[in-house]
Q: What sequence folds into this?
């Protein structure tokens, strides 16, 4: 019995570390928010059924001690180790970052576990150690939530210190121009396009990557802002009503750009109206003191634009007002178009980006740069330097194939545009996708329509994840797409391998449309 207890305890230690790491990883991807993590747990509880089974075994072991139960616990722990080691290998799209906050949470979780183990040992002796050990492994399902609640006052104080320090730094830069950029999609692209254009005349700082939360912006200012910077382009992200206002209150923008309003993060926003209201929190912050630039192609933006005095609208082809594009020529090599200003000035631009849907974002960046004093003619050369943003219609040549990487957070508008771009290429057009996520109650509808578009524009369609892609498959079959050219795979790598093996004499163009984050990818 002593040997069995020792084996259970040692296996529990290993399983404990693996399950703690996995759940912490998912908690970090859920934004350290208990409500979002609970929602994720409800959706993905089957992934961690071994922990629920182990919890039952651990409770039974507290009251009953016989060898078949111990053997079953050992087997369950061994399977837990195998499963969570496999999950660690698979969950590599966005790795766990051991931030100071994560380290504090891990410390709290381990401390709670040791206290529990010590109390049980003190009052019940060594006999309960195997059962308690297994229970502590299973407790990772909820200990993370408890530790987050316990640590909340500390996190608030730490965050307040860093945010106040960043605000102090910003206040000392009295001549710095802060440009806020938000939108359901397109904000990261516009941010980088604008940076490229403005660098021709100004010293520019941008929030890197997806540093679009209060803490991400805080870190950017504290670590990267220099005395020589003249413009700070600040991407502002949100998943709930009020979050853009919170950022604007902390870091007031001088000017703002709203790139789009659309069905993104509907699970947390609950309605398009809430999304629209939240994005225009930026316009509310800028109104009366600076310029607000609005995507006039977007219907939800146009209908609210009238509530603001003198907004500057920008358009792609078809609307002759504000800044707009005309004479658009799109090919697989790039795009050319003429930009017309509100004053009637015109210049032809050539960019290396593929797809007509990029024009609206480039025109928006040109509108801002021109309004800040850079003549339209001077923007022609910087515009040629604009590069695709990583994982946003980024072309890569790979082993005789052309990969069109659009793997970042697909949305209904962008996914349709990506398929239309794929259709321009002369060759075998292959789509690989797990579909779109975080679209709330309309997720199935949007994915079915996505399937319709895919059937009309692709030669081969490879879906990733049978359950989640069923609406896409339904949409594909509605259009009479050949069944033998549409397959479902469990993993992206399997779909890519199959795409490489497809026998087709034409050059292969593979569109990677969306790539589910680890916390949604199962």
A:
């Amino acid at each position: 019995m002593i040997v069995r207890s020792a084996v259970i305890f040692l296996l529990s230690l290993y399983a404990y570390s693996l399950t703690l790491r996995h759940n912490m990883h998912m908690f970090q991807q859920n934004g350290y928010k208990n409500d979002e993590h609970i929602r994720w747990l409800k959706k993905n509880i089957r992934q961690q059924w071994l922990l629920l089974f182990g919890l039952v075994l651990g409770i039974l072991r507290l009251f009953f001690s016989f060898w078949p139960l111990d053997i079953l616990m050992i087997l369950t722990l061994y399977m837990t180790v195998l499963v969570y080691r496999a999950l660690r290998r698979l969950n590599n799209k966005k790795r766990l970052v051991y931030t100071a906050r994560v380290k504090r949470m891990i410390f709290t979780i381990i401390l709670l576990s040791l206290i529990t183990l010590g109390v049980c040992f003190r009052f019940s002796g060594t006999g309960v150690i195997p059962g308690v050990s297994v229970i502590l492994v299973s407790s990772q399902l909820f200990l993370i939530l408890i530790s987050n609640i316990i640590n909340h006052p500390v996190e608030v104080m730490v965050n307040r210190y860093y945010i106040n320090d960043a605000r102090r730094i910003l206040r000392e830069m009295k001549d710095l121009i802060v440009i806020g950029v938000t939108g359901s999609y397109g904000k990261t692209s516009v941010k980088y396009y604008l940076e490229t254009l403005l660098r021709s005349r100004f010293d520019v700082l941008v929030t890197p990557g997806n540093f679009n939360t209060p803490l991400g912006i805080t870190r950017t200012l504290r670590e990267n802002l220099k005395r020589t910077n003249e413009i700070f382009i600040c991407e502002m992200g949100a998943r709930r009503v009020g979050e853009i206002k919170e950022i604007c209150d902390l870091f007031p923008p001088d000017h703002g750009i709203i790139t789009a309003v659309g069905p993104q993060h509907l699970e947390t926003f609950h309605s398009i109206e809430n999304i629209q209201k939240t994005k225009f929190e930026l316009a509310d912050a800028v109104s009366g003191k600076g310029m607000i630039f609005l995507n006039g192609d977007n219907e939800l933006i146009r209908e609210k634009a009238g509530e603001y005095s003198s907004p500057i609208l920008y358009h792609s082809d078809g609307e002759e007002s504000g800044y707009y594009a005309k004479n658009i020529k799109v090919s697989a090599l790039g795009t050319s178009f003429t930009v017309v200003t509100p004053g009637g000035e015109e210049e032809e631009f050539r960019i290396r980006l593929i797809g007509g849907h990029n024009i609206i974002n480039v025109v928006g960046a040109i509108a801002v740069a021109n309004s800040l004093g850079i003549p339209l003619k001077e923007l022609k050369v910087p515009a040629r330097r604009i590069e695709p943003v990583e994982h946003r219609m980024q072309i890569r040549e790979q082993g005789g194939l052309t990969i069109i990487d659009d793997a970042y957070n697909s949305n209904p508008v962008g996914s349709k545009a990506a398929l239309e771009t794929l259709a321009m290429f002369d060759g075998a057009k292959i789509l690989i996708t797990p579909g779109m996520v975080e679209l709330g109650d309309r997720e199935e509808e949007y994915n079915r329509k996505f399937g319709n578009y895919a059937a009309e524009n692709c030669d081969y369609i490879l879906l990733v994840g049978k359950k989640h892609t069923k609406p896409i498959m339904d949409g594909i079959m509605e259009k009479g797409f050949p069944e033998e050219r549409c397959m479902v795979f469990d993993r992206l790598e399997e779909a890519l391998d199959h795409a490489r093996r497809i026998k087709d004499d034409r050059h292969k163009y593979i569109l990677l449309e969306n790539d589910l984050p680890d916390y949604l990818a199962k």
Observations:
- The chain has 20 helices and 15 strands.
